[in-house]
């Protein structure tokens, strides 16, 4: 780097390239690729500091002082930044303008220890004018924002590492609890509980067609003899009426429909016209953008934020993490000018619209999400510059921004009431139609809507003919229609983000990750767009509600967010607040006290849900199942009935449970006899999936159920002396394409014959076999295995084909089975070409050093060079996955600790010298071996907890 240049550090490679072009030769822009430091792992803490920092990497007794280390994957990045800094005359920290960005800037300052002037450079859009203006208007580092981010990080570590282990011991290993994640999971479970408790009610009405002057329109029955007809909103969740209304059953509604058809005419008794206006929606915040991207573009929250990040870093939109709905004066003028140019002078009101932000943190939320610049580029003009998802999201943001400054829409709704004298009863029908007299902002944009109860009862909007009171209309095609009330719809990602924001839970930086975390932890699955909670989520939420009530209380969680906001504004001391949260205060029982006084937790009761008097849903190691007691013999061992994986909790009613209990057992169906050894082949449906098994011949005393083909076992003898263990029978899993009901004897025998010997490699003399494994079908030759493309190849692949597969390189560009689906230029960090390959778990991006799977909802075509670079950077930032039972690495040199008060570079401590090894007796060696195993298990558990609370941050 030339003498006298200014060094600018950003956190993203894409952002780096965009900004370098605007600043010119006097600046060098480099990227930190996200955070460079984080809380240390236990193995990275020197022996001298383990007593203070060992449990959490936080000294909870001395100002909650955190112990930070530079991650292994960032040492190269840090070295490059230090080299560049040596020849710089000024350092500009240009990370994002929110808490996370401020914290990255502080960590860079602490790690690089610059001896040149340091300035904080912030901007909310990446345009030439904005970047050059930011260089001329720098500020000091905001330590209040740093404190808020650090407090949140410490809070999540304490929460995750204290609460998650309780879940491992009482529910399931490897799962996690999190500050926002757990509250969001409870929301999904609470909605499912409402659905489970819901009682549906039936009601009927009558639809018909009316016509005047040759124009036909639909009408619906609303009153009978002056009494209001029941609608879905008239019933409560118990299926009971909330007010006095007329209820028609099927017979009454059918008779009335027939009577209406018999009459054939009706009289117009009322024509009512009401004018109305609709105002435009505010520009996008992070939350509303995610909601609309979900409704209109079918994007998950995380995918929407990833696309928005790319648009921001390329300079097309403003910063995408914001609570603000305000627009700058220049943006307002740009939106108004574009609206006038596209829709005419009447498209905008006389005065610009002003939207007030709900956020108290003005320093973190400068402006809404909008197209960048003082003159907005139209979506059509960018069609050649953006990929498909970027184009769709930019179009949404552009329309929303322009529409936010447009005039109100004006409309008139006309309701016509028609009376029919049907068999002595006065049946009143209505029809409604809305006509927009001025579309206003609707010319540009109309917001999507989530599914709501009562949608089926909403009157259909239609074009009505001109009629007057007293007109006689023809009425025909009357039809009785039945309806049932429905429970509240399940949350989608969009509606979950909406309710989290309404309750004050989470902030823009966390909204995107929460739905993804809940899905990844197995707390919910997607059915279409709906988030369906699993029984695992029920067990987790039940434990948290019973033993950590505050931590899943919505108001308490929202209050935590508000407290972090007050720290960000400098109104509260972070150390005092953490003491209150962890150790407790007059108004709050601390987390430490709760964990230390948990008492006994009945894991069996925790993982049980009563379905009927005899059937209980239990969640076990391998998932949910029904435990069915025998009423005639309560002391007998309960029967186990598998619960289908795709059965939602609210669908497991008492009736459905009985169906599962009474269903014929597909398992243990006799397929026939193995002609080679006379053994009986049966098919079973086990906890790990369907499989076939070879059993000893059935004794003459045993019986076979003629209906199901199930072996009826004889009563087991009473316990006595131990017998020698019988050899395990041969088993083989069914292929994915096979089913328990359809498999035959020949197929079962072929499965049991696996692995199949394909032949012998003429060069090495090694035998080549084809078989099925945990990750799919494959060939094996000694220790060398190769994947096959389909399960059918296990039986069909020939020796020549197998040798051809082995002739290809196992890894690399020459391997046809995993040849590149797409190729890009070199990655800016590794310097190696980026490729997209098809792997065992789906398509993934790789530069030969780092692999990252393409997320759900995205295709290979969606991945551009910039997207691939960002995905690899994010994966490197996370660091390598900790392997279960991995040996402890040698202690590293101690890393800098954060000073408890002032943000000054922390002095490093010398690492403790390793004591010389001592001789041990056999007993001591055995004890140490046991301790080592326990330590390995603890490290694995801590790694899982750390990953969990990172995902929630």
Q: What is the average per-residue confidence, as pLDDT, rounded to a whole number?
A: 83
Number of helices: 26
How many angstroms does the end-to-end distance come to? 36 Å
> Beta fraction of the residues?
15-25%
Question: Can you walk through the features of this model?
Answer:
α7 packs across α16 (535-547). The chain has 953 residues and is α+β, with helices and mostly antiparallel strands. The strands form 10 sheets. The protein has a 6-stranded antiparallel beta barrel with strand order 9-10-14-13-12-15. Strands 2-1-7-8 form a 4-stranded parallel sheet, sandwiched between helices. The protein has a 4-stranded antiparallel sheet with strand order 18-19-20-21. It starts with 5 loop residues before the first strand and ends with a helix. The relative contact order is 0.12. β30 (776-781) and β31 form a beta hairpin. It contains 26 helices and 35 strands. Helix content is 33%, strand content 21%.
Secondary-structure blueprint of this entry?
Blueprint: E1 6-10, H1 13-23, E2 27-31, E3 37-39, H2 50-53, E4 58-59, E5 65-66, E6 68-70, H3 75-86, E7 90-93, H4 99-112, E8 118-120, H5 128-136, H6 143-170, H7 179-197, E9 202-212, E10 215-224, E11 227-228, H8 250-263, E12 265-278, H9 286-297, H10 301-313, H11 329-343, H12 388-403, E13 409-422, E14 425-438, E15 472-484, H13 493-503, H14 508-511, H15 513-520, E16 524-527, E17 530-533, H16 535-547, H17 554-568, H18 574-583, H19 591-596, H20 603-606, E18 608-610, E19 615-620, E20 623-628, E21 639-642, H21 654-662, E22 669-673, E23 680-686, E24 689-695, E25 703-704, E26 711-712, E27 731-733, H22 745-752, E28 756-760, E29 767-773, E30 776-781, E31 784-787, H23 793-796, H24 799-807, E32 820-826, E33 833-839, E34 842-846, E35 851-853, H25 865-878, H26 922-952
Parallel strand pairs: 1-2, 1-7, 7-8
Antiparallel strand pairs: 3-6, 4-5, 9-10, 9-15, 10-11, 10-14, 12-13, 12-15, 13-14, 16-17, 18-19, 19-20, 20-21, 22-23, 23-24, 24-27, 25-26, 28-29, 29-30, 30-31, 32-33, 33-34, 34-35
Helix pairs in contact: 4-6, 6-17, 6-18, 6-26, 7-15, 7-16, 9-10, 9-12, 9-13, 10-12
